[in-house]
Amino acid sequence: MSDNLTKNNTLLSSKGLFKRYGKRWVVKDVAIKVNKGEVVGLLGPNGAGKTTLINAICGIVIPTSGHITVDGFDVVKNFRETRSQIGLVPQELNLEAFEKVFQNVSFTRGLYGKKENPQYIEKILKDFSLWDKKDNRLRELSGGMKKRALIAKALSHEPKILFLDEPTAGVDISLRRDMWRSVRELQQKGVTIILTTHYIEEAEAIADRVSVINNGEIIITDNKIDLMQKMGQKNLTIELQDPIDQIPSELSTYSLVKNNNQSLTYSYDSHAKSTGITNLLQDIKSAGLKLKDLNSSQPSLENIFEKLVRESA
Description:
By secondary structure, the chain is of the alpha/beta class. Helices cover about 30% and strands about 30% of the residues. The protein is built from ten helices and 14 strands. The protein has helices at about 50-55, 80-85, 100-110, 120-125, 145-155, 175-190, 200-205, 225-230, 275-285, 300-310, and strands at about 10-20, 25-35, 40-45, 65-70, 75, 85-90, 160-165, 190-195, 210-215, 215-225, 235-240, 255-260, 265-270, 290-295. The strands form three sheets. Strands 6-7-8-3-9-10 form a six-stranded mixed β-sheet, sandwiched between helices. The protein has a four-stranded antiparallel β-sheet with strand order 2-1-4-5. It has a four-stranded antiparallel β-sheet with strand order 12-13-11-14, with helices on one face. Helix 3 (about 100-110) runs parallel beside helix 5. The longest helix has 16 residues, at about 175-190. It is elongated, with a radius of gyration of 24 Å.
C-alpha cells in the first residue's frame, strides 16, 4: 500500500470495535482501515477472533460497541447500503445441494436487488472455470469447484469489497494457486479483498498488507515487505569446510545454531549499529574453523507471525 493514499481511498474502517459473548471478549478495541483496491491478509491462530471480526463487518453479528463504515456508510445504521457492497465467502460449503450452478449464482444476485444480467453471470462462471458446470447441480461438484461456486455467488451482485474466510482451507496446492491467481485478477479489476488464512505463504504471496490478530486484538498492521524488514532478524548461514561435532566454547556468546555438522546459523539485527558479524568471523578463524561459504537471508512472514503471536500470548 502506498503511503500517499488519501482518505478518499478508504473503503472500510472501524474504530473502537468490541464484541463480547457472555463474559468473553472475542474482539477487543479493533481499529482498521482498508483502502480501495488492496488485498489485506488477516492472520491469526484458531480462536483469535478473525471470523467474528469479519462477521461484524459484514453485519452478521452486531458489535457490542464501536463503529464500522463501508464506503462511508455505517454497517448497523445503513445495513442495506453496506451489505450490497460486500461479498462474503464463508469457510463452510453452505450451498443448496440440488440447485444448478447458473441458477444459484443468478438467484443470489437477485437477493441483493440487482437486475438480471446473464452475461455478467456467464463471465463470472468462466472466470472461475465453472461455465462447463453451469447446468450441474451443486452437489455434483468437487470440493474445490464448490469453493469456486461460493466465490461466484459472492461476486454475483458486483460488490466493492470481498471477504474470503479461509478460502483455500482443505484444497490441494494446485487449486490454491489457481485461487491466488483469481484474487490477483479481481484486484486488478478494482475489487478490494480481505482474506483470513492459516497459510502464511498465502498472505506472503498475494497480500499487500498484513494484520496479525490474537486474543481478539490487532497486534500489528503493516505493509508486508516493511513488516518483514522491521520485525525479522536476518540469518547468516555459515558453511564450514570441515565437519564439527559441537560448536567450540569460544563461540558460545554468539548463540549459534548448528544445522548439521558443517553448517551454523547466526541471527542478527540488520538495523543495529553493530551486527557482530565481523567479530564472529574473526572468532571462528581463531577457533580453528575454516569457512566454505556465507549466505544471508531474511526470515519469512511465518517466522515473524509466530514471534508476534508468542509475544502477545
